Amino acid sequence: MNLKGLLIVPNISLIHQIYNDFYDYSSLNGWLVENHVHKIFSGQEKITDKNLVLSTWQSLMNIKSKDYFSQFDFVIVDECHGIKGKELSAILEKCTNAPYRIGLTGTTGNNKANINTIIGLTGSMNKLNSTKELVEKKQVADFNIKCLILKYDEETRNTLKKYKYPDEVKWIVMNQKRNIFIKNLAISMKNNSLLLFNFIDHGKLLFNLIKESKHLKDRNVYLIYGGVVGEERERIRNIIETEENSIILASVQTTSTGVSIKNLHNIIFCNGTKSSIRLLQSIGRAIRLHDSKEKATIIDIVDDLSYKSHKNFSLIHFIERIKIYNEQEFDYRLINIPFECK
């Protein structure tokens, strides 16, 4: 059976990662990846006679012709929780000649409408294992979560109690003492560590702080965000697999979903989230099996700026994360840290 298929991934990093994985998988059977797989991303030709098209949904969304999508006999969507987006849904609706559809994800979220959209476009849902079950089966690495709750001084909490969400976030990520705390934490951790940030300016600030530290010694530090081209991201990923004590700073947008670094031991969440999908996807980066890894460590940094009955946004988001940790039966520990900003 000579079928033509479309494999859709959420970002350019996964284009290069999966293409290279195909090389590894076919190293013994003589299957030539370059003869069978065509990559589509920014600036690449979209027309090919190869059997498999590997593309981001962003590269496909502006193709108006339904005839283009009618060529595919099957569609595979990696990280299919993204189907809830109208762009990806529209692409799948155009694949009218593809009776074979597979969606893969570790996190669907709890929104019923989103789940129904995924089912409608890819088929019935089969839940194979929870993260806890995979740990018990030793198919992923065990891990523990340390929630470092920064208990800010009363004067700071009183000052910030009327801040709206954007103002609170800006204050947190630009707080010099907090950033120095993250820098010292990253340098103190052994083995390869990943720091996930939400804002590019914050990531660059932390990168420079760590790079300039006199305590860094001979450790390598890498920065990944949207401005780093896909080939360079893949090069960094491959380098880290061979190193023992690197520090990687990466944006959540480029790295929390799908990107696989087996030789990763620690993750630090530089900013909190209340999204179950983003949280579980981020944790998934640390639990790939590796010979050097007995147990991964997840650091969840929490900013407690509550004042009397008022709870700040960061703390409210952390309460949502705790609910997720409990639902998933994750092992976590709360550690209060007095944090003076005066």
Structure description:
With 342 residues, the protein is α/β, with parallel strands linked by helices. The protein is built from 15 helices and twelve strands. It has helices spanning 12-25, 33-36, 57-60, 66-69, 86-94, 112-122, 131-136, 154-160, 165-173, 176-188, 200-211, 230-240, 252-255, 276-284, 313-327; strands spanning 5-9, 37-40, 52-56, 74-78, 100-104, 142-152, 193-197, 221-224, 247-251, 266-269, 295-304, 332-339. Helix 1 (12-25) packs across helix 12 (230-240) and helix 10 (176-188) packs across helix 11 (200-211). The mean pLDDT is 86.
Query: What's the domain count?
Result: 2
Low-confidence stretches: none
What is the alpha-carbon Rg in Å? 22 Å
Beta-strand segment tally: 12
Here the CATH topology of the largest domain equals Rossmann fold
Instruction: Report the sheet with the most strands, covering strand number, pairing sense and barrel closure.
Output: 7 strands, parallel
CATH class of the largest domain: Alpha Beta
β-strand percent reads 15-25%
Helix % is 25-40%
Strand order of the largest sheet: 8-9-7-10-11-6-12
Write the topology of this structure.
Elements lengths: L4 E5 L2 H14 L7 H4 E4 L11 E5 H4 L5 H4 L4 E5 L7 H9 L5 E5 L7 H11 L8 H6 L5 E11 L1 H7 L4 H9 L2 H13 L4 E5 L2 H12 L9 E4 L5 H11 L6 E5 H4 L10 E4 L6 H9 L10 E10 L8 H15 L4 E8 L3
Helix pairs in contact: 1-12, 10-11
Pick out its properties.
342 residues; alpha/beta; five-stranded parallel beta sheet; 21% strand
Short description:
This protein has 15 helices and twelve strands.
